[in-house]
Amino acid sequence: MAEKSDNSRYSLKEILPYAVLILLGVALFIRSAYGFCQSDESFYVSTAGRFASGDVIFADEWHPTQMSSLLTAPVYAMYRLVTGGTAGMIRFFRCVYLLLTMAEAAWIYTRLKGMGRRYAGSALALFILLYCHLNMATLSYYMICFQCFLMAALMCYRAEKSVYFGAGGFFYALAVLSLPSLAVASTLVFVILALCCIRKKEIRRPFLCFLAGICIPLVLFLIYVYASGLGIAGILANLVNILSDSEHDRDYYQSFKAFFHAIEDAYGRIYYLSLLLVAVSILSCFREKLRRSAEIYILIADVMLFIYYAAVSARHTGFMNTAFALFVFPLFFLARKKDWYIFASLFLGGLAVSATYSFSSYSDLYVLSIGHGLA
To answer: Residue 248 needs a FRET pair 20 to 30 A away by CA distance; which of 44, 61, 157, 171 works?
Structure first.
């Protein structure tokens, strides 16, 4: 009898997280029928529609983020093929986004649970399902980049099979297609890894599998480019006009400053206290005496600052991502056991995504906080 009761509790413990995800997913599907976005949602759908109808990338479109619409054009074309029209297209994009996000959340929970990190997996799965930039639960280039970058990092996390590294490269390539300037930001990382492969044989196979995964979307993109008659020369010829677009004209020095000052503009100069906590926590990694004497004070100050950041963030969309990033940064260095892969791939990678948005899109915190969400 006791064994049967234990089995029931075990089954409930296994099923409950998936049941919660399904219930939330159903609620979000119902919610998708309501609300009209006055921002860019119709732009994402219409650009995909233009490419599905025969317009050529770069030649017929000027927006810097247009490459993400190549990923969504098949969704648009499939809906028109089945229904014969475009009525309900915006909601269909929302539903496809929700289906993909639910699948990703379930996979993330399952993968982390298998590593003995059930609670971390539950928290991350809920975050993935409930968070979307500007509350636009649709196939935007912001969220495609965010979701694919996260999938790439977690595919490679403690991976034991080459297929995981290949899948990681595949998802990373999709993230770059959604935010092409991300490729520039990660060039240095690839150069370092390539140099490391010369001396460390154990990372050669994972790195090569990752590159092989990248090549799949890259080859498909090149096939499209030449099939459309554009070619590499056509891309380069039209790229000049896209980069000179006055709406997205960038002052790179101002973008660099904004990457740091956007947080100060939101929270005030008290933000520098968080940087001080980070500096002290990093020093404590090298001085055990400092760790023992300062640890409790860092924790108290960090919690108090988080409460303040959370109160300010409640009035803004996405700012809570930044509040959590500032909160966990010093905690990582205080931890006795540090997962450096997660720190490098998600925290530093998230900051790289945030910086890329600062240079290629807008420098306001509501955009930069997408990268902070990864962190």
So the answer is: 171
Q: What is the pLDDT of residues 238-296, one digit of tens each?
A: 766 665 555 555 556 666 667 777 888 888 888 889 889 888 888 888 877 777 778 88
Asked if residue 44 lies in contact with residue 140, where contact means CB atoms within 8 angstroms, the answer is yes
Nearest partner of 121 among 104, 99, 135, judged by Cα: 104
For 69, phi and psi rounded to 5 degrees? -70, -20
In angstroms, rounded to a whole number, what is the distance separating the alpha carbons of residues 232 and 202? 36
Tokens of 84: 């014969």
What gap in Å lies between CA 214 and CA 193, rounded to an integer?
A: 15
Burial label, 219 (beta-carbon count in 10 A; 0-12, 13-18, 19+): exposed
Q: What would the pLDDT profile of 306-341 be if each residue is shown by its tens digit?
A: 999 999 888 887 888 888 888 988 888 888 888 888
Q: Are 56 and 228 in contact (CB under 8 A)?
A: yes
Q: How far is CA 180 from CA 78, 327, 353, in A?
A: 25, 30, 11
- pTM, to two decimals: 0.87
| Domain segments of the chain as ranges | 2-249, 257-349
Mind giving me the DSSP string for 103-146?
A: HHHHHHHHHHHHTT-HHHHHHHHHHHHH--GGG--S--HHHHHH
